[in-house]
Design brief:
This protein is mainly alpha-helical and 222 residues long. It has helices at 9-13, 44-75, 78-83, 85-103, 115-125, 128-140, 170-174, 190-193, 197-204, 210-221, and strands at 146-153, 158-165, 177-183. Strand 1 and strand 2 (158-165) form a beta hairpin.
Length: 222
């Protein structure tokens, strides 16, 4: 079960930049299932490449960017600090987003959520079917690369759907707390679904880990 720390995923994975001097390096998290566990909906080749190559690259590049930022801080080089912001945002976002994404999926996933999350979905979207249709449409409609998200608006106490470009992290760019993320970069589906993103979106609902999404909602909605 997730703790309230799930509400601040981005803050937990990317420490305050002022504390970089004493930080530990980021590492690639293990998947909670085998690469082939999500078949036939997402095949093993995609999962292996996505996790061991793409996510690993974000982790590696984030560590490099943070080390350069630490050096720039020590030198008082504000220009270098500013120049490193895009790399920190892109690679830090990639690490945050994928760390959530893997836990949002499960071989035992699919179906509908239960309990308070389902009630919140009905309250804010009318029905689960309408919610699913809207998040699918938003995710399909992302231009180029990016993510479709179900997030929690802490100030308004309600669920919201949003899209983020590239690897922009949901909480860091919109303030919404991430509950469910759908990766619509082509590396997440192209080897199996080619350029037909809607087919990938149709399939991924069969492996959504509603227990994980519910735990994130419970931790953040109190």
């Amino acid at each position: 079960m997730l703790s309230r720390a799930a509400c601040s995923t981005s803050r937990r994975l990317v420490p305050a930049l002022g504390a970089l001097g004493s930080r530990q390096k980021h590492s690639l998290p293990d998947l909670p299932y085998d690469y082939g566990a999500l078949e036939p909906h997402i095949n093993a080749q995609i999962m292996q490449l996505h996790h061991s190559k793409h996510h690993a690259a974000y982790v590696s590049n984030l560590n490099v960017a943070e080390e350069k930022y630490r050096e720039a801080l020590e030198k008082g080089d504000v220009t270098a600090q500013i120049a490193l912001q895009p790399a920190l945002k892109f690679n830090g976002g990639g690490h945050i987003n994928h760390s959530i994404f893997w836990t949002n999926l499960s071989p035992q996933g699919g179906g509908e959520p239960k309990g308070e999350l389902l009630e919140a979905i009905k309250r804010d979207f009318g029905s689960f079917a309408k919610f699913k249709e809207k998040l699918t449409a938003v995710s399909v409609g992302v231009q180029g690369s990016g993510w479709g998200w179900l997030g929690f608006n802490k100030e308004q106490g309600r669920l919201q759907i949003a899209a983020c470009s590239n690897q922009d992290p949901l909480q860091g760019t919109t303030g919404l707390i991430p509950l469910l993320g759908i990766d619509v970069w082509e590396h997440a589906y192209y080897l199996q679904y080619k350029n037909v993103r809607p087919d990938y979106l149709k399939a991924i609902w069969n492996v959504i880990n509603w227990e994980n999404v519910t735990a994130r909602y419970t931790a953040c909605s109190k």
